[in-house]
Amino acid sequence: MPLSGSRLGPGFVAFALLLAGCQQMERLSFIRPSAQPRGYTQVAPSYDVSGKKGRAESDPVLLLLSANDQLQRGQYAEAERLARQALKLRPDSGDAQTLLGAIASARGDAAAAGKAYRAAVQIAPGNGVYANNYGNWLCANGQAADALPWFERALADPTYPTPVAALVNAGTCAMRAGQPERAESNWRRALELDPQNLTALAGMAALEQERGNGLDARAFVERWLALSPEDPAGLRLAADIEQKLGDNAAASRYLSRLQAISSTSATPPRTQ
């Protein structure tokens, strides 16, 4: 029987913990997603605008580059000032609104972030990056069902550079909306493009486990752990899968690995 939104068991709980930080936000052309806490990484060189203040304060691109640099440094007030200056010069800049959303998100101001991401999609409704970001914000703020069309809009953009991000987000959000079949479709499409996508593998492992398809769940979790062998959520789910399949020896091996990792991480460093 397909999994319903109200019948999530222990396996899915482990998966949900993994997903807490895995939804992918797209930023600007000079920013890419990363595993860093704020979810993005500078990929263009920093611009030295010393001695060029006049140009820097009147060039929207330089302002956004400088604003992004300040955001990376944790200087949120200065980053916002620069981004708003860029927006003043270019009121139709979806990139400026996107950066303002990233700044607000880094500050923990979800409402301001949502307002900025919404403004970006209003400026450029067909832009896949902006659509993915707004959908991701909606999903993270209790509006999962409303978020799903935005991921579809992102995927409809032929210039969208990372469709896997939107597919993974759509799968995660579909589960939150109680639509497991839609989640499966999106995760499988993501894995066709990126067979090593951890979030999609984790999602499929947990989903198949909840459906009672232990062998399929095992196959997905083994692929997950082959890529991330010390992932606690993956080890817990693998142990649960093996227990339900009746292989207690395999379950014990996974639990032993999990215990070893927990013991290592809990041991304080020695001092000389």
List strands and helices in order, with pairings.
Elements lengths: L9 H10 L11 E2 L8 E2 L10 H4 L3 H13 L3 H14 L4 H13 L3 H14 L4 H13 L3 H13 L6 H14 L3 H14 L4 H13 L3 H14 L4 H14 L2 H19 L6
Antiparallel strand pairs: 1-2
Helix pairs in contact: 1-11, 1-13, 3-4, 3-5, 4-5, 5-6, 6-7, 7-8, 7-9, 8-9, 9-10, 10-11, 11-12, 12-13, 13-14
Number of domains: 2
Question: Low-confidence stretches at least 5 residues in length (pLDDT < 50)?
Answer: 1-22, 27-51
- Please trace the helix and strand order, writing H or E for each element: HEEHHHHHHHHHHHHH
Helix content: 55-70%
Give a brief rundown of this model.
The protein is mainly α. Helices cover 67% and strands 1% of the residues.
Can you describe what's shown?
The protein is an all-alpha fold and 272 residues long. It has two domains: 1-24 and 164-263, Tetratricopeptide repeat domain (Serine Threonine Protein Phosphatase 5, Tetratricopeptide repeat), CATH 1.25.40.10; 26-127, Tetratricopeptide repeat domain (Serine Threonine Protein Phosphatase 5, Tetratricopeptide repeat). Helices cover 67% and strands 1% of the residues. The protein has 14 helices and two strands. The chain has a two-stranded antiparallel ribbon.
Keywords:
272 residues; 2 domains; mainly alpha; two-stranded antiparallel sheet; 67% helix; Serine Threonine Protein Phosphatase 5, Tetratricopeptide repeat; elongated; disordered N terminus
